[in-house]
Design a protein that fits this description.
Strand order of the largest sheet of chain A: 3-2-1-4-5-6
Number of domains of chain A: 2
Shape of chain A: globular
CATH superfamily of the largest domain in chain A: Uncharacterised protein PF01937, DUF89, domain 3
Largest sheet of chain A: 6 strands, mixed
Oligomer: homodimer
CATH class of the largest domain in chain A: Alpha Beta
Strand content of chain A: 5-15%
Distance between the termini of chain A: 56 Å
Chain lengths: ~280, ~280
């Protein structure tokens, strides 16, 4: 995508293979991805190899936005429709597939809207109404437009959205949040990190403070799921299961829509319910 | 396939990644495959990791054999049908796909029988009738039963069949040739090498002698095509194009049936025709 120079391509390939041959296989996939993509950026001398793809994903999202917004407004349950669409947008992930066609996005929207959330969205919006500070961890460019539909259904004054600190694959940065008009709607911060997920120890002190202060985290996508699923924090994960390992971990099928609360959050809820 | 011990799996994975990171990318794919599979055999302490798969492929080939033989005998052009089926059998290649289902084989047979060879089979059988010594380079277990159908259409006294010298992926060895009754029909030798192709310099002196003495080579499969296509020898390649690089090199589409003569062979023919 970034260079047709076969000498550089070979150099990138060799360095990545060497890195992977020595890699700690217990590292999370976003940490592995960070290390691999640092090599690509360094060797090709491109700080943002996916720039064009991110721009066209944002453009495509914005093209679909008016239709999706009408759909949400006219839906029997607008909140559920907004959650379904936000998850549908998670198909725009170039860390999993090397390309995402417009038809894949339409298919993902149709599937998500046909997948009932079985009342999980009620628990989700209940937690939102009880929370004082909500941190929304966005995932990919393009997908951020789908997030906007959901964020519009949230109590906006409680919400801060976080994006990645530096370009990494097609993950969302502040540039994308600005491009789709999200920064006008809600407070957006960056996490200071170049990982395609949320590796807390590597995030900026400001981000870490916001994360710890928030009493509810909304985490989009596989990368955030892979890095935060064991965190002692009340987190709702919204994603599509795009690989077999994730599907097995979440107890669903490949391609399924996931809206699930972290173990910590579920325990907290059970205790609250008892009281 | 060979071990469920994750420690060994990780060791194999790391060693192969390290090897590939330093590999000369100008090497032919069968040479790369040889080096990779030597690591697998050594680290898992299994001289023949694909043994069971080869046995079941042979068994499946033998199950299909009576029906295919009747088809050939009753065909309008039995020789063309035999060539088509021999190429169809080339789908049984575990070096390209990690598994081959019985339905894939049926599909491959149907497609091959519906692909006219456009008279190329006439040139092929013309060369066979003019040759004095023919060396038939077999490719994979299971596929060897399909080869038998074609070999039955050849002037058997001129023909020697060569198999690999040692187990490598699911490539055919003398064990398979015996198992499917080929050794009773025709002289079968092994090439002394553990490469999934024919790397002449690594083959036994006896094989090299036979190769040089033969005035016609029939070479089955991608591995033989990848290692012999630049050889100054009259060679007919019979294979299915199972990867994009091969398809482009042969000027056909992925999955296509290929019956093509080496550049050297084609030149020889043109000269003969002029005389």
């Amino acid at each position: 995508m970034v260079t047709s120079d076969e000498v550089i391509q070979e150099e990138v390939l060799r360095e990545i293979l060497g890195l992977v041959s020595r890699m700690d296989l217990n590292m999370s996939p976003p940490l592995m991805g960070q290390r691999i993509h640092r090599i690509i950026k360094e060797k090709t001398n491109q700080a943002d190899p996916y720039k064009k793809h991110k721009e066209s994903s944002n453009w495509l999202g914005l093209k679909l936005y008016p239709g999706m917004r009408s759909y949400v407004e006219e839906a029997k349950n607008p909140k559920e429709a907004a959650v379904q669409l936000a998850i549908a947008g998670n198909v725009i992930d170039l860390g999993v597939n090397s390309r995402v066609a417009e038809s894949d996005i339409h298919k993902s929207i149709e599937e998500a809207l046909n997948t009932p959330l079985n009342g999980n969205e009620k628990e989700f919006f209940q937690a939102i109404s009880e929370a004082r500070k909500i941190l929304y961890l966005a995932d990919n460019a393009g997908e951020i437009v789908f997030d906007k539909l959901l964020i519009e259904q949230l109590p906006i004054e409680k919400v801060t959205v976080a994006v990645r600190g530096f370009p990494i694959i097609n993950d969302v940065t502040i540039t994308d949040a600005q491009a789709v008009g999200l920064t006008k709607l809600v407070k957006v911060i960056d996490n200071g990190s170049d990982a395609p997920g949320t590796i807390l120890a590597e995030c900026s002190p400001e981000f870490q403070k916001r994360f710890h202060e928030a009493d509810l985290i909304i985490a989009k996508g596989q990368g955030n799921y892979e890095t935060l699923s064991d965190e002692e924090k009340d987190i709702f994960f919204l994603l599509k299961a795009k690989c077999q390992v994730i599907a097995e971990h979440a107890g669903c099928l490949l391609g399924d829509v996931i809206l699930s609360r972290s173990a910590f959050g579920s325990t907290k809820r059970a205790v609250t319910a008892q009281v």
